[in-house]
Amino acid sequence: MRNSSITTFFHSIDGALLLNSEDALSRVEQLLKDILKKLEFIENRLKLLDYGFSELISVSEIVSLLSLPIGYAVDAAKRFLEIARSYKLDPISIDIVKILSVCEGFNVSEITRRLRDLRGRASRRIVRERLRILESKGIVFNKGSTNRPKYVLRKCIEESKH
User: Fold this and answer.
1) Does 53 score more than 60 pLDDT?
2) Are residue 4 and residue 77 in the same domain, yes or no?
3) What SUPFAM superfamilies does the annotation carry (predicted)?
4) Count of alpha carbons within 13 Å of 80, Cβ hemisphere only?
5) pTM of the model
6) Calpha distance 67→61 (Å, rounded)
7) What are φ and ψ of residue 152, in 5° steps?
8) pLDDT of the residue at 84
């Protein structure tokens, strides 16, 4: 008698686990379908814009780094790649341009923080040095003051004028 009640107990647990597993599986399937739809949208958008693999990587990095919607990230990646291909830049400067490609003004501390998120390490001194170099090349513009600089890509300023 005791053996059959234990068996019944485990069968009811198995039934509950199976039901919960089926619910969880259907939720996961729905999430995967949603993700596939979003990926198809991204693929189609990239095909329309004629982007290649390097552009896709840049879009992906910009989306994850800056938590941007895909449309903004594609525009930012386009800006970034145009600059990265036009100038010979060191890896830190490239990442600074990537950060500034969203067309927001950032101070040195904000850029350093985002650079640290992207690279794992960053020094305010090195960031300031690279920003001076980028400013001398005409890539970035200080839209703040000398004492409180706020940097933005010159390309962003040009785009906003049109």
Assistant:
1) no
2) no
3) Winged helix' DNA-binding domain (SSF46785)
4) 28
5) 0.62
6) 10
7) -145, 155
8) 86
Model confidence over 78-127: pLDDT tens digits? 888 889 888 999 999 999 999 999 898 999 999 999 999 888 899 999 99
Q: Is 140 helix (H, G, I), strand (E, B) or coil?
A: strand
Cα–Cα separations (whole angstroms), residue 80 to 70, 128, 151: 15, 19, 15
Pair (74, 26) in one structural domain: no
Residues 78 and 150 in one domain: yes
Which one-letter amino acid corresponds to residue 18? Answer: L
**Is the model more confident about 59 or about 135?**
135
Tokens 């010979």 correspond to: 88
CATH number, domain containing residue 61: 1.10.10.10
Q: Do 35 and 83 share a structural domain? A: no
Is the same domain home to 96 and 136?
A: yes
Write out the two tokens for 140. 């970035």
Residues 42, 10 within the same domain: yes
Compute the CA torsion angle 88, 93, 99, 104 (nearest 10 deg).
-90
Residue 41: give the domain boundaries. 1-48
Mean of the per-residue pLDDT values for the chain?
Answer: 79
Q: Is 35 in the same domain as 80? A: no
Q: Which segments of the chain does DSSP mark as H helices, in order? A: 2-48, 53-66, 70-86, 91-100, 108-119, 124-136, 154-161
